[in-house]
Amino acid sequence: MAKAPLKIVFMGTPDFSVPALQTLIDTEYEIAAVYTQPPRPKGRGKNVQKSPVHLLAEENNIDVFTPPSFKKNKDAIAKFKNHNADIAIVAAYGLILPEEVLNAPAYGCLNIHASLLPKWRGAAPIQYSIWKGDDISGVTIMQMEKGLDTGPMIVKTETPITDTTTAQSLHDTLARQGADALVKVLGNICKTEKKPHSEKQNDADSSYASMLKKEDGKINWHQTAKEINRQVRALNPWPGTYFENSLGKRFKVKSAIVLDESGDESPGTLVTKAGNVVCGQGTLLKLDMIQPENKQAMSAEAAINGNYLETGTVLT
Q: In terms of domains, do 174 and 55 share one?
């Protein structure tokens, strides 16, 4: 197959970016370069690891660039311009691009954003859409401009959020959808040889998904069981949700189930050996899989039978 008539620079870092890069490779676009975050220490051993995008690019013999920043970095900006790209594709790259970079490619820079803009601009749109109770999520392909996720929208795809949707499952769905939508947009650019039609965002309808912190995972048992369950599904695997027992020992919550029953006890009271906890407004949440401090994950029932937790105590 002949190479498609677009010279592309791809900019991405985590797993979310991989399907889009792989799709570009599979459809034989000319990928002039890949930009990704520099290798960094990860895990308990703090071994320096390359990003998923870095590894995929190397596997396919694509030149990789890892500037720590573009801000006031004339050398990095000059190298980017020297690629003479027709277009740059950005997917969860993690660096702010100055206007010199945004304007360098002939068709500018397109961003694959994991929300239905203008809702959930910012760093954690997948998690916030589940956590805050949205019924749908999706991907927006947008033309990038100076503001954070404020550029005009080219195309949107939607996917439902159900009572069992997790951050991981939604992440995987949107990563695939973003790759598919990108190919269609690029195909139209090849046909028309023009910047794609786009629609301005309504800033009044915007909301912001700020970067997640470890403290976001603390469970407040005065919230309803549904609200807590959304938090559990949204914030795993990171930063993870947790509570403490009466001795101050921390427990991570891996999964939970909302029950139709109700309870009269104070919020946070562990009422059964099955792991049922009273939440706000008398609602009940069944702890499913939990992880006691410095132990392996186990069922809540196993944790209670193993005396890690006691019924009748109030969790905090």
A: yes
Do 156 and 51 belong to one domain?
yes
Q: How, if at all, do strands 121-122 and 64-65 pair?
A: unpaired
The set of long-range contacts for 64-67, using a CB threshold of 8 Å and a minimum separation of 24, is 64/33, 64/34, 64/35, 64/36, 65/33, 65/34, 65/35, 65/36, 66/35, 66/36, 66/37, 66/38, 66/39, 67/35, 67/38, 67/95
Provide the pLDDT for residue 10.
98
Number of domains in the chain: 2
Structural domain of 285:
214-305
Q: What are phi and psi of 124, to 5 degrees?
A: -130, 55
What's the DSSP call for residue 264? -
Angle between helices 52-59 and 18-26 (to 10 degrees): 20
CATH number at residue 298: 3.10.25.10
What's the pTM value of the predicted model, to 2 decimals?
0.94
Which of 141, 175, 209 is at the close of a domain? 209
pLDDT at 44: 75
Q: CATH no. for residue 122?
A: 3.40.50.170
Three-state secondary structure readout of 247-275: CCCEEEEEEEEEEEEECCCCCCEECCCCC
Three-state SS at 201: coil
Q: What is the pLDDT of residues 83-124, one digit of tens each?
A: 999 999 999 999 999 999 999 999 999 999 999 999 999 999
Task: Report the SS3 class of residue 223.
Answer: coil
Task: Tell whether 51 is covered by a domain.
Answer: yes
Q: Is residue 1's pLDDT more than 80? A: no
Instruction: Quote the mean pLDDT of the chain.
Output: 96
State the average pLDDT over residues 243-265.
96
With a cut of 70, say whether residue 306 has pLDDT above it.
yes
Residue with tokens 């792989």: 22
Q: Which residues touch 81 (CB under 8 Å, ≥6 apart)? A: 100, 104
**Helices 167-192, 18-26: crossing angle, 10 deg rounding:** 40
